[in-house]
Amino acid sequence: MADFATGSCRLAEIDFRERAFPFSFGQIPPRLLESISKVGLLQPPLLQVTAKGYRIVCGRRRLEALRRNGAADAAIKFFAAPAGNLKELFRRALWENLSQREFNLVETADIYNKALKIFSEEELRLELKPALKIPGRQRFHKRYQAIAAFAPELRELIAGGIIDSESVDIISEWNDAELKSLIGLILETGLRRNKLREVINRLDDLARRDQVSVCEPLAAAGAVVSAAEGRIDISALRRQLQIRLYPHLTAARKNFAEKLAKLSLPANIRLEAPPDFEGGEYSLSFKFSDRRQWQEACEKLNSIVPEDIDEICSRS
Amino acid sequence: MKSVQDPDYGRALFYPATVLVEKEAADYPLTETILSRLKKARVVFVKRPAASDFNHLTELYSPQTTLFLARHRGRFLKACPGTAESYRCCLYQILHLGLGCNIGCSYCVLQGYLNNPFITQFVNLDDAFAELDAELAQPGVFCRIGTGEFTDSLFMDPLTGLAPRLIDYFSGSKNAILELKTKSVAIANLLDYPGEIGETIVSWSLNAPRVTAREEGFAASITERLQAAARCRERGYRIGLHFDPLLFFPGWEAEYRQTVAEIFKYLKGADIIWISIGAFRFMPQVKEVLRDNHPQSNITAGEFIRGRDGKQRYFSAVRRQLYRFLVTEIKSYAPEVFIYFCMEDQCLWQDTFGYAPADNAELGRWLDECCWRYAADV
C-alpha cells in the first residue's frame, strides 16, 4: 500500500456499522484476537475519510479485535484511501483479503452483491467471480443473493459453517416461517453440517411431496419425538423423517425383521437382505472359531425349512 | 382427423432467434438448408468452442433461443449408455445427430449430462452415413438405431428435413431399423415422404396427463401425440410407445389408466411394435440441477433409494406397483403387444411378467424379433 498516504485517528472515530466494503462477517478467529491482545495492531488498516469519521476499506477484523480488547480510544495508524474510485479500492481490498484467508459463504455473498453494483458484467466475469470462486451458473448467483437477504441469525449460522452451501441452496426457497423453524431446531438440537443437511433435505422432500409448508413435517416429526423422549433427540428426529419419507421401505424393513426373527438365528449367523431390497440377492454369513461352532451353525442352517426361505425372499 | 397439410404438423417446436455456426460447419448442405429456413435469425460464425468456452457463450447467447450448428468429430453410432450390468438393457444403438431440445421436461436427465448448453445440430451427415455403411456392412449385424436419446428426433424436423433423409437410408437397409422418438407432432415430413417407408418406427413418449401438463414443458398433449401416431400409422409407419419416466404421485392409477385408454382410441395393438416402460431414475447430482431449473416440480421428492447402478430409483415395491398396474392395463386392451422394461432389475421383470431376460443379449434378441416379425408382416 505504498502509494497511500498515512494518517492516524482514534478507534472510536471509525464507523463500524458502515459496510461499503463488506469483507468481513462472522466470528473473529481466536488467534487474531490473541495476537492483537499480545502485540496490538501491527499492520495498519486502510481507511477512508467520510463526513462522519472513517470508513473501513480493509482491516475490519483487526480493528474489531482491537475494539473487543477494550481499546476504544486507542490511537490507530492507518493508510488513507483517497476519496472516489470505489471500484479500484474495492479490488485492492478484495485481493488484500484474499491473500490472507478464504472468505466464508456470507462474506462471499456480501462481497459479490456489492460487486454486482459497482462492476461491469465483463469485470465480474473476468476478475471478480473467479476471485470469489463463483461459477457462472445461475444457481450460484441465486445462492449468494439468498444469503445476502437472510436474517442475521441465519447468516451467523452460515458464516459459522453450521449450515453448508448445499443446504443454503435448499433453504433459499423457504419462507420466513420455515426459516424461523429451522433456526429454532438448530438452536435446540445443536444439529450441524452433514446431519443438518440430511434433515433439511428430508424436510424439503416431504414438504414438496405433500405440497405443504416445511413447518408441517418438522412439527409432526418433532411432536412424535418429543412425546417419546421429552425433548427433540437428533437421532429420533432423523428416524421419524426417514419413516415419513420412506413408508414402503420402512414397512419392508419391518416385515423382513419379523420374518428373520421367526428363524431364531443365533448371533453368529447373519442373514441380510440386499441393500434397500434392490435386486434379489440375499447374503448369509456366519462366524465361528472352532469345529463345534461350525457344526452348530451348519445344523441351525440345515434345520431351516425351505418354506421359511421362500417367505424371506418373497417380494409380494 | 387433421389433414396432411395441417400446419401444426409442419411446425417445428424450436425457431431460434440466433444461430451459432461453427466455421468448419458453414459449407455443409444441411447448414445451408437450416439457414434458408431461418431467414430472420441472427447468424453468428464462431470458431469451434472448447468445453470451457460454453460458459462464456451462454452469457452472450441464450441457450433457450440459440441453435448451434457444428461438425461432429467423434463416432455417430454409439451404444446406448444404458446402465450398469445389474439392470437389463436392450443393446440399443444411438445415431448421434444432435444434442438437447427445447421442450423443457423437468425430468430430463440431459440437464445433468451435457457440457454444451446449446441445442446442437451436427451437419456433416455424409460422415454419419459413411459410418453407418461401414457398420452395417459387417456380416451378421442387426441394429436397432434411434436418434432420440440425446435430443428429440422430430422437434426441429421442419427446419432440418432430416427425417426423410434417414427414412431413405434405412428403407434400403436389410439389417437395421430406425426409431424416431418424439414428444412433438412435427410429422409433416414423415407424412409427405414419397417412397416406401421400409424399416422406420415412429415412437412417442407417453405419460399421465397430469405429468404431461406439469412436467413436459412445450410437449404436445397426449391426445395430440396419439393423433399424430395414428396419422403415421395410416401412412405405413409402425408405432412404438415409451412410458418413461413413470412417476409415482397421488392419483397415479387413474391418470395412467386414462392414458392407456387414450392409446387404444387411436391405435390397435397390431399397430404397435413395442411399448417400453421405465420408472423415473436419475443420477444423484441431477437432483440439484433439476430443482434449480424447475423449482416448482416435486418429482425428486419421493421414495428414492440408491440403485445398484448408483442412480436414484423408486424403492422396488413402488416400481412393482407401477409396473403391474400399467402392464395389466395395457394387456387388457392388447394382450399381444410386446412390453419391455428399460434399465430394470430382473426381479421386477419376474414379478411383473413371470419371466425375465437372462441377460442383455436376450432382451436385445426379443426386440430384434419384434422387428423381424414386422418386416415379415410387411
Number of strands of chain A: 6
Mean pLDDT over the full residue set of chain A: 92
* CATH class placement of the domain at 1-101 in chain A: Alpha Beta
Q: Please trace the helix and strand order of chain B, writing H or E for each element.
A: EHEHEEEEHEHEHHEHEHHEHEEHEEHEHH
Major sheet size, sense and barrel closure of chain A: 4 strands, mixed
Query: How many alpha or pi helices of chain A?
Result: 15
| Measured distance between first and last alpha carbons of chain B | 25 Å
What's the gyration radius of chain A in Å? 29 Å
Structural class of the secondary structure composition of chain B? alpha/beta
> How many individual β-strands of chain B?
16
Lateral strand order in the biggest sheet of chain A: 1-4-2-3
**Please, what is the oligomeric state?**
heterodimer
β-sheet strand percentage of chain A: 5-15%
Explain what the structure shows.
The complex is a heterodimer of chains A (316) and B (378). By secondary structure, chain A is of the alpha+beta class. Among the domains of chain A are: 101 residues, Alpha-Beta Complex (Conserved hypothetical protein from pyrococcus furiosus pfu- 392566-001, ParB domain), CATH 3.90.1530; 52 residues, no CATH class. Chain A has 15 helices and 6 strands. Chain A is elongated. The mean pLDDT of chain A is 92. Chain B has 14 helices and 16 strands. An 8-stranded mixed sheet of chain B has the order 4-5-8-9-10-11-12-16, sandwiched between helices. In chain B, helix 10 runs parallel beside helix 12 and helix 12 crosses helix 13. The N terminus of chain B is likely disordered. At the A-B interface, helix 6, helix 10 and helix 13 of A face helix 2, helix 11, helix 12 and helix 13 of B.
List the defining traits of the structure above.
heterodimer, A: 316 residues, alpha+beta, Conserved hypothetical protein from pyrococcus furiosus pfu- 392566-001, ParB domain, four-stranded mixed beta sheet, 58% helix, B: 378 residues, alpha/beta, 16 strands, disordered N terminus
